[in-house]
TrEMBL record:
Signal peptide: none annotated. Residues 1-23 are annotated as: Disordered. One of its GO terms (molecular function) is iron ion binding. Belongs to the cytochrome P450 family. Keywords: Heme, Iron, Metal-binding, Monooxygenase, Oxidoreductase. InterPro entries: Cyt_P450, Cyt_P450_B, Cyt_P450_CS, Cyt_P450_sf. Transmembrane segments: none annotated. This is Cytochrome P450.
Amino acid sequence: MSLPEPNEPSEASPLPDPVPLYGPGYKRDPYPLYARMREAGPIHRVLFPSGVTAWLVTGHEAAQKTLADPRLGKNHDRGNDRWRERASIMPEPQHSQLQVHLLHQDPPKHTTMRRLVTDAFAPRRVEGMRARFQEMADALVDAMPADAATGSAEPAELSEPAEPLDLVRCFAARFPFQVLAEVIGLPPHLAARFRREWGKVVAPVGPADPGRPAYEALLRELQGYIAEVVADRRGAPGDGLLSRLVAARDGGELTQEELDSMIFQLLVAGQEPVTNQITTAMVSLLRRPDALARLRAEPELMPAAVEELMRLDSAFELTTWRFLAEDADLHGTRVPAGDSVIVSLCAANRDPERFPDPDTLDLDRAQGSHLAFGHGIHFCPGAALARIELQVALGTLLARLPGLRLAVPEEELPWIPAVLGRGTVELPVAFDRPGCPLGRG
């Protein structure tokens, strides 16, 4: 059962209780609503399309304090019956077998599990792989269909309109997975069989939804694939992260469910957010041709630009659930035990009290504590890798695709319906094809 589309509250009207966080208008541009919520206070009751209600924290200071608050835990066992009725809807046995990864653990278990993955994503290690990532990005651009570009070398009346290039299909959905496979030690024969559709299982489908059978089928397929990965790495162990995780299971450091869950988290959460961040960053630049042109002309700005682009529009829009073990005050509001508490990273990153003129893309902004990767013990362990991926991806697209521009009106861009993330389903673009092949001629 789906909820009716929410009415857009006028700026003069009071915020509804709960505040609906869904609908095409919200997904396209949630920032005006977040600004109203920040101005009204640091915490609000919100409603998700599944019917789940939660407490949403919006301001930068309140967000930092919430993310580091030891009273709040991530384990789903803390959720109360009201939350569990609608939010904990991944069917069994998959829920028990795929939902005990790092994002849903508290210390000391979280500490033990996180220690197993940090070396693979250490800044020095992934920086040493930058040249390899650049090769991957260049190969994807080389493989782009040349007729997707709008020819600029010929007079307009002689050139035929070209089909737009979907940057998601041709690049953003492929590059992060290729990088991830290399970093975690997923062998090519298994990487070639991974289906991007499996990433959709992180967007739960309720039991009454007509799409539930297809959703459950994807879950079973993904679980079968994870079992193949485990068997392959056990039979032919290497020095990659996947092999080390299997060895940790065989050595008694992990349960089978924890192993499967960590592989699930790596394969799904390890790539889809980077795909989405490439799209949000490109949309931000395509909206601002002057900033795009400057970044193309001054590539040394790219590291700082990536930080500013993540601050401006983060692919991690909202955090996952947190729970209080007992009723407690949170930013002046009494929150019942077991109710879900969520932080809006996007709202925090545009807090004018922390970032002056926060809706502006400022390539010269003094970098500060944006929260695109979270904060506290659950700070994203792959942050260093994601930063390098974004620097390589954006730098390659700007350098290799001259005249890059949207091929459809911005209002026609389809934004992903995911509850916690931001990104576009497709990103149709055109570019100017020089008088030589698309490659490096």
